[in-house]
Amino acid sequence: MKTVNPIDVINKSRVHSFHILLVAWLFFVLMFDGYDVVIYGAVVSTLMEEWGMSDVMGGAIGSYTVAGTAVGAVIFGLMADKVGRKRVIIICTALFSLFTFLAGFATSAGIFTVCRIIAGLGLGGVMPNIIALVTEFAPQKRRTALVAFVFAGYSTGAVVAALTSRALLPTVGWKPTFWIAIIPIILLPLIMKSVPESVVYLIEKGKMDKVKGILTKVDPTISPADRIEMPKRTQSVVGSTFSQLFQEKRTFSTMMFWIAFFCSLLLVFAMNTWLPRLLMAAGFDLSSSLLFTAVMQLGAILGTVVLGPVMDRIGFKKVLVPLFFSGAIALALIGYSKNTAIVLGLITIIGAATIGVQNLSNTFVSQYYPTHMRATAIGSTMAFGRIGGILAPLIVGLLLSMNLQPQYNFGVIGIASLIGGVALLFVQEKHAIYREEKKVDEKHEKERSEAIPKIAEADANYTSRI
Fold first, then answer.
1. Membrane-crossing residues (predicted)?
2. What pLDDT was estimated at residue 452?
């Protein structure tokens, strides 16, 4: 029998079937999260025509949905510290899946809006808890890449939404595109069986048998007879509180994260809700606009998957800040071109610099704060960011109602990308938990390196005496 530290076991584990299955299911859940968010933007022009809505009303429905996600992010982020992340992920998945499905039966804008708001609660709650869970279980050396891959699921779902609506709208209308959202509920029993509960949560609740069961799956060399060492970070704090985001010199960086997320989510929801309409205003037809929407999401996937490992090597800010600024440039230029190839290139950059930035920023926040605070940190940061998401559909709806030139519409949106980059530039990485962990690892490595010559010298002396 040996003593094992759960955090060390997870950090030093190798990626195998346990991690692959966990990542696959969380990818699947976020795929439908992305699908359910983007499907409204794909069909909003059809709904406006069918129900006689104005651009402002169409934007208002999008804003009400995002308001639901903001409330859900706070409620379910805090709830996770009380009932566990797994339970919250299951509840949120059932919520957004069911009510997106029911929205497909709406006969009026009012009923549709109510369904979207309730679905928004689940959409807002599921993401921060998935970030926290995959961050907790990912091996330290592969953490950023695995988290980034999971969040590529969001953009994958968005691509499916754009292509599905492009295929179904001309033939069977908008309602079947919402009925597809019921799939996660059908597969919920499998998700419940395959996704583990947070080890940190289980330790805090004293459920050591369950902790051992999970650790044996993380690392098959762990024996159920081994003794669990209480990690220092979970011994000192039971649960996490909102006030801890502003302690230990984290206040300024927390505020910068909030501003950056305000801007990035404004960009995400502006693009997801209105990109087809913005491109139609620029002279493209609906079919082409939906295709461009799919290309934007592919750009987001490319940016997330490719730049995630790059962040592991060179650091978060060295990737995210230039990416924000490249988005500002692309948005400033796209309104001036009617060339399809140029627009496709700029749209790809915009996808990486809006949705891709959001995915990668989630990884940044999840690793900046200690494990026991991650759900609350991510939930509250995204909740503040969703204020930008709430305003985005309204702002762009108002811009469209003013009949401005396309370059002005995109230029106004691009200002958010510029501000977001500046905010992340001022995040103080020296106070991040991963920097502290790195210092500890370097100290241990140094002590081990210094000990090796001493051990060798002692062995040599002993040998000479013999």
1. 20-44, 56-76, 88-111, 117-138, 145-165, 177-203, 255-275, 287-307, 319-336, 342-362, 383-402, 408-427
2. 63
